[in-house]
Give the backbone structure.
Amino acid sequence: QQPTTLKLGWPTSDGATDPLAIGARAFKQALEKQSGGAMQVQLYPNRQIGDDKQLVEGVRFGTVDAAVVTNAVTAQTEPAFGVLELPFLFENDAHVQRVLDGPVGADLAKRLAARGAVVLGYFEGGFRSLINNKRPVTQPADMGGVKVRVMQNPVYIDLVNALGGAAVPMAWGETITAIQQGTIDGLELPVALIEPLKVNEFAKYLSLTQHTFTAYELLIGKRLLDRLPAQQQAWVQAAAKEAVLEQRRAMAGQTPKALESLQKAGMQVNAIGDVANFRKAVAPVYDKARKAGQGALIDAVLAAGK
Amino acid sequence: MSAVAAILSLGFAALVLLGVPFAFALALCVVGAIAVTGMDPMLLPQTLVAGTQSFSLLAIPFFMLAGEIMSAGGLSRRLVNVADVFVRHLPGGLGLVAILAALVFAAISGSAPATTAAIGAVMVPAMAERGYSRAYATALCVSAGVLAPLIPPSIAFVIWGVIAEQSIAKLFLSGVLPGLLMAVGMVALVLWHARRSGVARSPRASLREIATALRAGVWVLLAPVIVLGGIYLGIFTPTEAAVVACLYALFVALCIERSLKPAQLGGSITRAMSTTAMVLAIVGFSQGFGVLVAQEQLAPALTGWLAAHIHTKWLMLAALNIGFFLLAAVMDEVAIMVILGPMLIAIARQYGVDPIHFGSMIVTNVAIGMAAPPIGYCLFVGMAIAKLKLWEVARAIMPFVLMMVAVLFLVTYVPAFSLAFVR
Amino acid sequence: MRTAAHDLVEALATATRWSVQALTLLMLAALAIQVLMRSVFNAPPSWSEELALLAFSWTALLALAYGVREGIHVRMDMLLDALPRALRRGAERLVLAAVAGIGLYLAVAGWHYTESAVGTTSAAIGYPMPLLYASCVACGALVALFAAERLLLGLPACGEPEAAA
Ligand code: NA
Ligand code: NA
């Protein structure tokens, strides 16, 4: 019998250290093993079958089978996912995992399923930190006048502005040139991505603000999943569980290793002072989210941190 | 070959031969593939909109519009006047004027046909009046248009930067030397023509004439300084530079020179947007086409086949150049870049070609294609201005095309030409 | 009857052209403010890029449709030129019918696409996504209309703007 083939796309490279690629490859390996070859996964990295937004839509509409996408983009389809992007929300990695694998993650998945996409699991990209060419940032006041490239996302725009910086929403394609030529002063990224994206070649200071956490969703189309025989559905779910464990295990060692390598390459790395000062400064971002009706979800996330 | 692969290759070729515009031929193939595979029809609108949601591509309408306003406001005539007082007394004087003016115009405009139109409209009649043959004057202005995509800013580099995900500012720099080299080649051909044809030389301009021309042209001459200075001093991105160029041209034409009536502006915008739409239609519909090509895994198949048959980097570059050049003889250059781009980039990566050098080579090839017969935008613009038939211009332009191919050879095999300014 | 239909198409074409011009000026203004606010006041606006891109998609797709009426879309006509007159007329009709078909397909699929996006919002401004996707519906409908017009008037699929015929 012909094996069932799933086409799995993601927007970034298929590099050895790319967090999305690690997850995608882990899922392929797990599913082909689980099903004894009855199910195959074809990999499409590098935006070959669409960028984040097209992939989320594609999975919902059935033009794409499965995808790994950034949480911030998923939030454009289901705004509740935006709660995970709130600044200084998580205490540590363990807190993040309690949220993603607990009732909050399940609640978010249920909401997205109603929009035609099933969350098979949450991959991790690590905490995001601030990189800039002006000065090391240890307290909010150091952000004064620093022009920081952010994703096209209101939470990140508000976050940088609330800390006293100037948020510049900019497409990634222009960012490296803009920072090289001084159009902007810095940007923010998960630490593990700084070296693969060669940002360290143009930026001096890395301040470990750990302001937000980047999660990725492994998605599959609901219509597609429902059409599969029960046995295959079970294989898919089990493979996703295995892939999530494998991806997180691979990522766990990456941030410390990346930090060491960045310091060796001459980047000045510093820790921030009391995180409470930062939390206080971004209070308006939380007020806005609560006003948008996300209070219950925020409280659930915070409760999981205690 | 699968049904979808057949639609994407043979189906597309048949539709293009039948005379279906490239953009709609792409769309028809996507619809055909949707029908065969049972995919959701929403793939077509989804990819079309996604293709237009690129901030870098926003540079296209504004670089076009800046050129339109410069022409409509009479600024290109002032530019020609400045060039005229400096070089008209040299052998082949008016020919040199056209090259010099085109070189400066190229540093404002990113579009080859717009440059041919702006310079040709002034220079072809002027040269004909001074005893040059119309065909030669047209061939020269058509060739001069080729400088525009090479000298920054450049729409072709913007499109390639989006496809290849390379820095547009770096790609711009990689075109400077190839562009200057081409200008030098044109100067050589003009001098050679002057010795053979013996057109009378013009008198040297007086100091007063020079001062007058400079005073009238100073605002035009400032435009490239502002646009390129702004990009490389980090004041704005290449896309924003297009907007600044536009605002500056508007400001000069409306307020300083008072040479553009607000009513003319509507026409300029419509013309600029029509050209943009022609490009964007191809870019937009090719997105869905590209997704299908990726899903069919046609690119790995082709690169694998090439790798099995061609073993050295230099042979591969030669093959790509010849293939691209022949294709550009019958097909729209933008369509080739957009449809084959991802595949070409995969091949270049496999052979370890520097991506900026590769981009420079492709855009040099594209630029030549705009002037080389039988199909090329600059060629058509030149024919329209001079009211000449294709074969008349085609014969006169042959030496220029040969020179440009020689430059392409240098750009391909001496990476230093494209990478000198790129760190 | 025929002239009433003609007047309607003419009015739609004029409205399309004006929309393209107005949206271009809007993009110009938004990006001018963006450059000014960032470089002079160090306070880059967060809405300008997304607004300009929304206007760009609309402008490009409207101009794409308008271009069908003006015959701007590039194609290869070497084979057509070689055909005898009657055959060429037939081929042109076939091409125009195909273009009109794509227009209809785009309008209908675009309608479903727009409907399915209800409730989703853009990243920075938070405008409803159907506002962007509706550009496909408008584009498809106008492409179909303008192609049908050329078909009825017996014009070729490219070149010769309607005014010159
Ligand atoms: Na140029
Ligand atoms: Na050509």
Remarks:
- The two ends of chain B are 44 Å apart (CA to CA).
- The mean pLDDT of chain B is 87.
- Chain B touches chain C through 58 residues (CB under 8 Å).
- Chain B has two domains: 1-41, 55-419.
